[in-house]
TrEMBL record:
Transmembrane segments: 52-74, 228-251
KW Mitochondrion (keyword) present: no
The protein's name: Predicted protein
Similarity comment: Belongs to the methyl-accepting chemotaxis (MCP) protein family.
One protein family per Pfam: TarH
GO terms for MF: transmembrane signaling receptor activity
One cellular-component annotation, GO: plasma membrane
Matching CDD domains: HAMP, MCP2201-like_sensor
Family annotation (PROSITE patterns): CHEMOTAXIS_TRANSDUC_2, HAMP
Source species: Physcomitrium patens (Spreading-leaved earth moss)
UniProt feature coiled coil, ranges: none
């Protein structure tokens, strides 16, 4: 199609708009129907500034919507991955503890079944029962987790093998109770051990299945992220294509009317005043086309008026010529006719002058038209025990100290003894101390374990050292009874009467080197019946060659009934089992300690050890109120301690959560080992740009294309 055939173009001095094309009929000489599009017509009614702002804001809003949608989606994916992985990891941790307790319980069961020692068997059965109770709790916790189908099947297999193992254990214990050791041995070897091995294998398979579930969760998360990246890239590409399409449409809506305006102005500058342009646009360009069209029409009118003036001059000239001929032929005309002829010449001269001025004005208008176009020791002050045995020195008691000078008898001399000062320094020689629980249950048969520590504070060895720990007594003078004694050096022996005896134990050490310190533990049972309110352990001594016998300091244990006892327990489940160097701990990381007893826990503690480097404990709280070590914890209340920070080094940390109180009578549950915390090294740089980087790249490209087009 020739340029002159464009609608609204100037052709042959006339404006040409094919009527059939305007009506939507086929273009002459072709089979193509061209229709007016409502979108184009509406676009022509919008100002140029509004078009450009609409394009820029539309692209920005579209990119924000896409980026926001992808980020929300990725957040949801990450939340699901974290939930699935943490569930699998928590299940694996519980399953490992379950497996460990299972192995210990099976071994204890075998020992209890095979041992002829009834005391040992009873002890092992008690430990086994506690282990089974803990296993029941772990099994319930694992069962409450949101596990996959295969993990649940593996858990069902573990439960089935556990039932078989418990069944075999029950049979072995029944045979043991009947003192049928041959049958017991047969059941242990043919039923219990094989069942335990199958049980352990099922647990191992369950742990492996949970680890696979965790890994599958991570892989699924990576796939979802990759899918999100592709969706974001595709959406960005669609926005780019739409932006290009809109940019081209806006540029065409601007350049086409400008081309028409330039063509019309060029025609006027060349002297062609017949051209015109028709436009129904409502923007600045439509206003420009209308102004140029009106100017052209006005120029045509001026030129028409000039033509009319010239025609008048021509007519007058013809009339003058006719009058001259008439004058020459009529020489006899009078002077009045000559005056009329002179007046006619003056009028003719004025008309010619006006025509010349009109022509100059038209030329000036044509030239003007052509130019118009942004972020205590024990005191130790161990005073030498002035209240011998298991007696207690009360406030207000009088103490008599005797000092005998060398070479003098105890009679015949008197004087005053002044105490110059008191000291906490250990005397030169052998020294012994004991430690035990502050509180214990006031029940028949409660067992209390004391730790004895003795040392040689002299500069030379002490030989033939004798340590004699007598049985502690309650506050009414009734003696406790012997239960057990543990000495790594085997220097100590039980009382003559053995278990149940109230006589003293004895330790014989051949030689104790300077600075050498040894320890042993002795467990006693409180008196049966109704014991007093305290157990006093103050009748234990140490002596040796060349040194005086020394009595140790008093250790008191309060006996509390259930109403006066607290029971502090720990919960480390809020501590994350994994972390990464340089990545902060999650804000929900914490551990807690709960008082499950009936009485307020006095002088309570709740702490943790073994945290990874860079991770610390924050302000502990009880019901939202700040709590400090040594404060009380009411019955039923829980101390929650947040853990925060950023790991600074990779490795594995063995975390221990510890609690306790002065009136906590069940210290066995005061310390729990959390799952080993594994801190990984920081990940390397990403292989592909992040979603935000894609957005910046695409937006920069779009702005560059728009700038080039405009």
């Amino acid at each position: 199609m020739h340029d002159d055939d464009q609608p609204g173009a100037v052709k042959g001095g006339q404006e040409w708009f094919p009527e059939r094309w305007a009506a939507g009929a086929p273009w002459p000489g072709s089979g193509i129907f061209i229709k007016k599009i409502g979108f184009s017509m509406n676009l022509n009614q919008i100002t140029v500034a509004q078009k450009l702002w609409a394009l820029v804001l539309g692209l920005l809003v579209s990119m924000l919507v896409v980026n926001g949608g992808i980020l929300v989606y990725l957040h949801g994916v990450n939340e699901k991955i974290n939930t699935d992985v943490m569930t699998a990891q928590s299940g694996a941790t519980l399953a490992r503890e379950w497996r460990h307790l299972t192995q210990m319980s099976v071994e204890r069961s075998i020992v209890a079944a095979m041992s002829p020692d009834e005391t040992l068997a009873a002890q092992q059965r008690a430990l086994m029962s506690k282990g089974i109770e803990r296993i029941n709790v772990l099994q319930k916790q694992v069962g409450d987790l949101q596990l996959g189908t295969q993990s649940k099947q593996a858990l069902d297999a573990v439960a089935a093998e556990r039932r078989e193992t418990l069944k075999a254990n029950s049979a072995a214990q029944e045979a043991r109770k009947a003192n049928d050791f041959a049958t017991t041995f047969d059941i242990v070897e043919k039923q219990l051990r094989p069942a335990a091995e199958r049980y352990n294998s099922a647990q191992e398979a369950f742990v492996q299945q949970l680890e696979r579930q965790s890994e599958l969760g991570r892989e699924e998360g990576v796939a979802h992220r990759r899918q999100a990246y592709w969706i974001g890239a595709l959406a960005s590409a669609v926005i780019v294509a739409l932006g290009l399409f809109m940019g081209v449409a806006i540029m065409r809506s601007i350049t086409r009317p400008l081309d028409q305006a330039v063509a019309l102005a060029d025609g006027i500058a060349a002297g062609d005043l017949t051209g015109s342009v028709q436009s129904n646009r409502g923007d600045e360009l439509g206003h420009l086309l209308g102004a140029l069209n009106g100017m052209a029409q006005r120029l045509r009118g001026v030129v028409g008026e000039v033509r009319s003036g010239v025609e008048s001059v021509s007519t007058a000239s013809n009339q003058i010529a006719s009058g001259n001929q008439d004058l020459s032929s009529r020489t006899e005309q009078t002077a009045a006719n000559l005056e009329e002829t002179a007046a006619s010449m003056e009028e003719l001269t004025a008309t010619v002058t006006q025509s010349a001025d009109t022509a100059r004005q038209a030329n000036q208008l044509a030239a003007t038209a052509a130019q118009a176009a942004e972020q205590g020791g024990a005191v130790v002050a161990q005073a030498y025990d002035v209240a011998p045995g298991n007696e207690v020195l009360r406030v207000g008691d009088k103490v008599r100290l005797e000092a005998i000078a060398a070479g003098c008898s105890q009679s015949g001399h008197s004087g005053h003894l002044y105490v110059d000062n008191f000291t906490t320094a250990l005397p030169k020689g052998v020294w012994i101390t004991a430690s035990g629980p502050v509180s214990a249950p006031k029940n028949d048969g409660t067992e209390i374990t004391y730790t004895y520590s003795y040392t040689n504070n002299a500069s030379t060895p002490v030989t033939n050292v004798e340590v004699t720990p007598a049985m502690p007594q309650d506050s009414t003078g009734v003696s406790t009874s012997f239960v057990s004694l543990v000495d790594a050096k085997n220097y100590c022996t039980a009382p003559v009467g053995g278990v149940g005896s109230t006589g003293p134990a004895k330790c014989s050490i051949p030689s104790l080197a300077p600075g050498e310190t040894l320890t042993f533990k002795m467990t006693v049972k409180v008196p049966l019946g109704t014991p007093g309110d305290q157990i006093n352990n103050g009748n234990y001594t140490i002596g040796g060659d060349g040194v005086a016998t020394l009595m140790g300091a008093m250790v008191q244990t309060n006996l509390l009934d259930a109403a006066s006892s607290s029971d502090m327990t720990t919960n480390p489940s809020g501590l994350p089992p994994k972390g990464t160097v340089g990545v902060p701990y999650p804000p929900t990381a914490s551990f807690s300690c709960t008082n499950q007893g009936a009485a307020t826990a006095n002088n309570a503690i709740c702490g943790v050890t073994g945290l990874p480097p860079g991770v610390t404990v924050g302000q502990c709280k009880v019901n939202g109120v700040d709590w400090a070590q040594g404060d009380a914890v009411a019955a039923g209340e829980t101390v929650v301690c947040p853990v925060s920070g950023t790991p600074t080094a990779p490795g594995t940390s063995n975390v221990q959560v510890t609690t306790g109180a002065d009136n906590d009578v069940t210290p066995a549950n005061n310390q729990v080992a959390a799952s080993p915390v594994v801190i990984a090294s920081p990940a390397g740089p990403a292989s592909i740009p992040t979603l935000s980087e894609w957005g910046l790249i695409l937006m920069s490209g779009l702005m560059g294309i728009m700038g080039w087009g405009m």
